């Protein structure tokens, strides 16, 4: 069965630092990949998604992710984080027709 | 954008009682909705897929008689936790997929915090 690994459980950065959060999935073949963000006290929101085409996907709020098929990875990046990016980030892969498999999440804290 | 609401946001109940949680898609129709459970410091675990007009599909290990799901309309799915016990205390989140969106994006509700005493 498909699984998703997020290796960083907690990340602490200063404002303006660059961010990269790792995400690996276990099953090859055609995959649909997502990054969701959950700000404190809010619901999950879609940051970006990959279905096909350009493996470098740009999302909202300056985030981007790169799908590397050979590495089974879909890492999330942002060149310069802001305090408002403090949140929990979840990577997910669509398994089968409509089942989303989530990683454990990464808590990001950005200090001013 | 697509908005999903949940009601209530928090509920506290006594052990042995039943609790109903509603999930609504406010500005789109959803033939498919999903119910997740989120444990502290853990990820979301899919409990079941709710299909409008038909029976829900439950994930392995989820008791269908305990977690009753009804998807009576294209904008409403309900999850009823029957005979709740303290171990059912958790954060329950629903999501809905826009019937007209071929890209399989799920939109999530704000979640319901259930505490069973």
Could you characterize the architecture of this molecule?
The complex is a heterodimer of chains A (112) and B (117). Chain A has 112 residues and is mainly beta. In chain A, a hairpin with a 3-residue loop joins strand 10 and strand 11. In chain A, the strands form three sheets. In chain A, strands 2, 5, 6, 10, 11 and 12 form a six-stranded mixed sheet that branches. A four-stranded antiparallel sheet of chain A has the order 3-9-8-7, with no helix packed on it. Chain A contains no helices and twelve strands. Chain A has strands at residues 4-5, 10-14, 19-21, 24-25, 32-38, 44-50, 56-58, 64-68, 73-78, 87-95, 99-102, 106-111. Helix content of chain A is 0%, strand content 53%. The relative contact order of chain A is 0.33. The radius of gyration of chain A is 13 Å and the shape is globular. Chain B is mainly beta. Chain B is built from no helices and eleven strands. Chain B has strands spanning 4-7, 10-13, 19-25, 32-38, 44-51, 57-58, 67-73, 76-81, 90-97, 106-108, 112-116. In chain B, strands 2, 4, 5, 6, 9, 10 and 11 form a seven-stranded mixed sheet that branches. A four-stranded antiparallel sheet of chain B has the order 1-3-8-7, with no helix packed on it. In chain B, a hairpin with a 5-residue loop joins strand 4 (32-38) and strand 5 (44-51). Chain B is globular, with a radius of gyration of 13 Å. The interface between A and B is medium-sized, with 20 and 21 residues.
């Amino acid at each position: 069965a498909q699984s998703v690994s997020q290796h960083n459980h907690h990340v602490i950065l200063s404002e303006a630092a660059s961010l990269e959060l790792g995400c690996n999935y276990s099953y090859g073949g055609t995959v649909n990949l997502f990054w969701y963000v959950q700000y404190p006290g809010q619901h999950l929101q879609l940051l970006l998604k990959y279905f096909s085409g350009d493996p470098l996907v740009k999302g909202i709020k300056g985030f981007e992710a790169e799908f590397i098929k050979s590495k089974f990875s879909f890492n999330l990046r942002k060149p310069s984080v802001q305090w408002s990016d403090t949140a929990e980030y979840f990577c997910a892969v669509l398994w089968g027709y409509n089942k989303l498999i989530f990683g454990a999440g990464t808590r990001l804290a950005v200090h001013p | 954008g697509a908005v999903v609401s949940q009601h209530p946001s928090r509920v506290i109940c006594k052990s042995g009682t039943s609790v109903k949680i509603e999930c609504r898609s406010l500005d789109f129709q959803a033939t498919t909705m999903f119910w997740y459970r989120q444990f502290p410091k853990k990820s979301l675990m899919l409990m079941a897929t709710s299909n409008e007009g038909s029976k829900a599909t439950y994930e392995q290990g989820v008791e269908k008689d305990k977690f009753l799901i009804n998807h009576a309309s294209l904008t409403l799915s309900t999850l009823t936790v029957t005979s709740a016990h303290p171990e059912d205390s958790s954060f329950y989140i629903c999501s809905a997929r826009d019937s007209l969106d071929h890209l399989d994006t799920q939109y999530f509700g704000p979640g319901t915090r259930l505490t069973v005493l």
